[in-house]
């Protein structure tokens, strides 16, 4: 006979603490959204309070000043192309490392993992010099190639763990049926990587879409600005237009938040499956 779980005081306390912690993480969102619809004076005098009057025109002004459709297109193009390259090359590289466990591949995978701990700030100056020497500075292509390099470490690491959970017998059956090595990967293995592919896509999209420092180093032309770079124009050295700046931040973060909420269930599924070797 099964006994029902008792709702103990410890469980109640843990739930209350979890709710309070969740509310704590939501505080920055509250300040950003509430202050984005205030007047500049109201924002400075009472940043935590409810708006005395709603100024939704802040969004229309910010939309026009930063040319939101244009910078949105730049961010979308860079994020999409970077993700396509990362998904293709990282999945193939991880598959090769798992299915051909040579000394070289093991060492290469170790280098991928080790490079994840290198701070980006320590390689900024060499990066700018290399990009300038290759003639790809101030171009979307140069920025996308940089994202290929910096995003491949985590992507390969996640794919590497997930591929271990896929039985080799499936691939062997495909080879017996006359499938080529590339056919085995693209027709058999890659569709099975869907949960991890969505996970990698989400994590890289959140990073690339909201990234500020790397586009700041690579892109110098105003026509190539991404959303974070355009929004930073409201926060100059001597003048800070908090009302318009916060409105532009809300405009910029809304698409990626909606994308995350629509796809978030795949993250736990992908990481959980990839943590166990089959």
Architecture blueprint of SSEs:
Blueprint: H1 9-35, H2 40-45, H3 57-65, H4 68-99, H5 103-114, H6 124-134, H7 140-163, H8 168-176, H9 181-192, H10 194-210, H11 213-218, H12 227-231, H13 242-263, H14 265-274
Helix pairs in contact: 3-13, 4-5, 4-7, 4-10, 7-10, 7-14, 8-9, 10-13, 10-14
Describe the structure using short key phrases.
about 280 residues, mainly alpha, MetI-like fold, about 0% strand
In percent, how helical is the residue content? over 70%
Query: Could you say which structural class the secondary elements and strand pairing correspond to?
Result: mainly alpha
Distance between the termini: 34 Å
Radius of gyration: 23 Å
Q: Which whole number gives the mean pLDDT?
A: 86
The CATH topology assignment is: MetI-like fold
The strand count comes to: 0
Low-confidence stretches are 274-278
CATH architecture: Orthogonal Bundle
Q: Let me know the largest β-sheet.
A: none
Shape descriptor: globular
Number of folding domains?
Answer: 1
Counted by DSSP, the helix tally is 14
Estimate the strand proportion: under 5%
């Amino acid at each position: 006979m099964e006994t029902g779980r008792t709702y103990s005081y410890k469980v109640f306390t843990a739930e209350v603490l979890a709710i309070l912690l969740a509310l704590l993480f939501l505080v920055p969102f509250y300040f950003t959204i509430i202050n984005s619809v205030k007047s500049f004076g109201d924002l400075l005098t009472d940043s935590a309070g409810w708006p005395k009057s709603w100024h939704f025109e802040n969004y229309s002004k910010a939309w026009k000043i930063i040319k939101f459709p244009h910078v949105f297109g730049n961010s979308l193009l860079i994020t999409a192309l970077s993700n396509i390259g990362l998904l293709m090359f990282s999945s193939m590289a991880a598959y090769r490392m798992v299915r051909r466990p040579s000394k070289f591949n093991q060492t290469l995978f170790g280098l991928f993992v080790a490079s994840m701990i290198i701070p980006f700030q320590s390689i900024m100056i060499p990066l700018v010099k290399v990009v300038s020497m290759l003639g790809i500075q101030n171009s979307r292509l140069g920025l996308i190639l940089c994202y290929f390099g910096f995003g491949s470490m985590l992507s390969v690491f996640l794919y590497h763990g997930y591929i271990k959970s896929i039985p080799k017998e499936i691939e062997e059956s495909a080879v017996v049926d006359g499938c080529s090595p590339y056919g085995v990967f693209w027709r058999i293995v890659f569709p099975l990587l869907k949960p991890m592919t969505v996970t990698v896509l989400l994590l890289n999209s959140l990073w690339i879409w909201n990234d500020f420092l790397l586009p700041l180093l690579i892109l110098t032309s105003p026509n190539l600005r991404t959303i974070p770079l355009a929004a930073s124009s409201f926060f100059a050295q001597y003048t800070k237009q908090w009302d318009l700046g916060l409105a532009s931040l809300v405009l910029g973060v809304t698409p990626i938040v909606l994308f995350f909420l629509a796809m978030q269930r795949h993250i736990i599924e992908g990481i959980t499956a990839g943590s166990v070797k089959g």
